Write a sequence for this structure.
């Protein structure tokens, strides 16, 4: 099984961290193609940057679609997710939706930790659109630029722990790392906080494997039916 | 007051129709700039095409932002609306959101008429995201490609009337024309059906004028705060 | 275009302030009739008072209905709004609904500033009924009787600024002045707070103008169909 | 215990039927005062008429408030219910809210039978406001003017049975008679349909007795706190 | 009328308190059978214990079903409520649902006081399932084991008063005692707090009496239809 | 990794089918323990039977908890799911919740096919409780007793195809087999209908593997925290 893991920003460092995480949890029989666009924003901290990154990601997907069995969109904003599900038939999984569905199974209320204050509003909007508002406990920011997260791991760990403790006081039963740039911090944080911490990259890879293995596809009826001019079946 | 009305597809014909409609309802003191991208899809019938069109629209907006007092996004899918509200401070109004808020004032339940069967699912998703699901009566398709709508006005009128009658049986108290390509068909259809028919281009222009005239702006706090790298105030 | 702006309480001072605000934002071609009942409560701070005021307002509307193109109901509780939409065909706009729909366009979350603690519960109920609960950030009271608001402008400004700052901490991206008695305080407060502040009287007038100009009416099918004994079309 | 049962319309016949029903189910120790306004609409088939009737009902309540232990508002639209709960401390029960809460205990989904097509929209709005939309199966009309319901009992029974059968096909597990004018038809219809049929007048009386007996009152904190001192011209 | 009041835990003391409360509010003509299982958990503080208690309660109900006119399930978690409504036709009322519907009539927002921190999450889940989330103000715990509540009445009263005051600050307009073990503390607490306090055992008994008296039954169509192998009508 | 797959009814045939399905999709390194209670109902077609089966399942889980890394509850009603998540720390996955979260990733709207008409109401209730009502298209019954499903595969296939076609007309984009007794019919039906068909047993096994592999557990904070020390007579 070949899974394309696409980091829609151009940060090579973040792509490398995503690759490490994905390799760590993939099944032995899974082959991963972890990639990112050559141009576009180096981190996605706004809808504007997400729009640019979406185009670049769609180009990558179109060029590789013959060779892949599933796609993991490795940015917590799920940018361009609808369009990707529309042009492909193989399972496409956003890491935000993957992590949220797992959180709903492990506890009643989840909190999301994000990089920037601005992301708090964006995440709240995302949770609303995904239909999980009744299960959301809070969204807490570590107030660090996305590109600093992997670059300054000690500061990140410290701030994640602080934010996680506030989230627990908010009523969180599970924690989601709400940024692909936070991948790899899950196990340490889980140990620190004593409640499950979900790494969304892991969630995306495992769910994509599961769907593909089960022979399931994106439904080509209704919302994600092929664009009229691209019909291919 | 200068209002940019942007048709995110490249159809000159549809841009012309949008201009006609917008000119018809604008205030005397309003100057309209009605435009469309030079490249990109000629009609937007999928999320994929919306993604491409979003990039083109954002480029236009960026190049014109110094000279405009408000923006009307004249495509019923509201493509790229979040990003546009994020990079601008002047009011940005999507024609879908404008038409829905007007519908909620005129009656309890509204129906939306769309071009294609695929759009039915996309609209349902849009209504859900805009929070108006309890006010939606039904979505009915005329099953014509978007570019045919203006090209074959008689067929369009006939099919709109049929779809509108079905919508009334579904419980519609008002009708929204759910496609910029349907602009200009409102008054005739309203006469035919006997209930209010909302032309979303008109709704967008009038709401943009109103917001701008009132001295209101997009809030630069929270969801639509400027992208971190673009902060300008 | 003739718009009836009806202040359902009997305060002449408040009616005067409403008139000033409405005149300030109306289109040149709009003629305003701003009025209030001769008897009834001088301010509406309860459902009980709203019930009395509704009767008085309905009488005014019935006597003037031949001569008007739209109605603005200038009390933030939208008292009697259903009945008014029912007996008229011309657009009837409540200033609460008008301000809320504008707020949803300018930001994700809005807060409402009200006069009295009791109004906090009444507003929460109103927001719930209008379907905007997911967009509400908070409701904050300045704890002043309605009739003091215009009478003591300095105290009002000071308390509004304090309440507005608390609202921003609650997550507000826009602020709505949740009482017709607060009309005219919008621009100063907006400058103070740095986020959009919506004057609901302005919102009501501009929306009524827009709907009327577009040739739209209250739907006489379904919820707002004429009372059985009054059918007139 | 003295319970005021108020029929807000002026129909003596309907008031008599309401009295009969109320007497039938009251506890032995309960004394009923069943009354209706002297002037106002003879039946309430619109929000406009409800507004007039509200004023008349409030006057009755104010004049009797010293002598009563609970109030039942015997009109299915619950007109003026908020105001009544506000000015009184003794339990005030609307027959619509009473019947809906009983229905939610007896089955998952309920349907409401109403007199007129217009009432279908009004009931849908009422159910939404009372928060029971997820429990509503359908609203079906017998298409008879309210005053005919008691006057033509055979036709009413026949049409109720037909409407009830359609409601069962819609998924109804219980039926609510959605008009005080339908009081007394419950047991016959229940026998006919084989599922529980709730007479809202009975529901209101029994719930008012229960609340009063338990020593409960309307909360005078928050939404239903007393109106601030009334000022009238 | 014979009402079975079933305490699903095995605490004789709590069963006695429930009996006292039920006797205090029942109608003169009502005969109460108040009982509890012989084996099973002595208090229900988890879903696990509720599952065991459900089986014991179902056995009691099955053995007594010929002789009873209604059932009150006297545990605030409503354990096994669906199954009980399914196997019986006479009204079955959970004390949680009974208290919540009464609270919605007396005020806009209610708070629930519970015994243990763990119960806070369980109650939140229960409120969500019963569809009253928009009416919930908060859930506050007295942090005492269930069996201590009746055993240490002074401590309980003190802690309830403290928790009730916090609930009022949260916005509560009414208070519900969210544990059968708190039965009998309502009137004292109501006096202390000045807002209505609902004893759920009382609510359950009065609602069961009312439903039975009205000739209503659990609907045997849809959700609560008899188990296929037990069909009896 | 050892996964306990528990069929809560006593049908050996159905347990065998569940084993076959589970073996088909498990990872090579996964060891399955597929079992069912020795006593209790042979099929679960009511809440009553679910209550009995829950006790038996809990007993099995308690006796095996030292030796397992995850649990799959293989009955579509998710009976006893809360209690199981409460007493265990290893991931516990209900096949209903697993299938629904997968369906939300593959399309906008899903339909569920069930065995009996009674299950339609039970499923609707389940979907509501799991929070997926906005994503549900319809629930369609094949009207066959659960134990006949595997026993008469040709009739089952035929009726599933018919029900699936009706579901597609209802707007389904994906289909869920809403009964463990339907396991194994997915691929054939998927071929027949042309849209994704989700076998919930497969969904449960793959999700349990994923969660366990990621090092995640049920959160022991909040809703699923361990039962306080159990006291039993």
């Amino acid at each position: 099984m070949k899974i394309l893991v696409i980091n829609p920003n151009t940060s090579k460092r973040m792509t490398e961290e995503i690759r490490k995480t994905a390799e760590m949890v993939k099944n032995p029989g899974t082959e991963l193609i972890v990639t990112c666009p050559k141009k576009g924003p180096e981190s996605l901290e706004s809808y504007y940057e997400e729009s640019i990154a979406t185009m670049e990601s769609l180009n990558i997907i179109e060029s590789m679609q013959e060779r892949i069995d599933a796609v993991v969109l490795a940015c917590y904003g799920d940018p361009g997710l609808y369009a990707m599900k529309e042009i492909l038939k193989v399972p496409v999984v956003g890491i935000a939706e993957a992590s949220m569905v797992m959180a709903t199974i492990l506890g009643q209320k989840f909190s999301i930790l994000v990089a920037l204050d601005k992301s708090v509003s964006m995440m709240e909007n995302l949770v609303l659109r995904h239909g999980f508002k009744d299960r959301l406990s809070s969204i807490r920011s570590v107030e660090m630029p996305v590109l600093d997260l992997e670059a300054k791991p000690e500061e990140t760990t410290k701030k994640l722990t602080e934010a996680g403790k506030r989230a627990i006081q908010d009523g969180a039963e599970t924690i989601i790392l709400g940024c692909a740039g936070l991948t790899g911090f899950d196990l340490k944080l889980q140990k620190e906080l004593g409640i499950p911490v979900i790494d969304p990259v892991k969630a995306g890879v495992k769910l994509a494997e599961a769907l593909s293995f089960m022979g399931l596809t994106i439904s080509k009826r209704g919302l994600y039916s092929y664009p009229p001019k691209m019909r291919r079946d």
Q: What stands out?
A: Residues 96-199 of chain D form a domain with the Rossmann fold fold (CATH 3.40.50.12500).
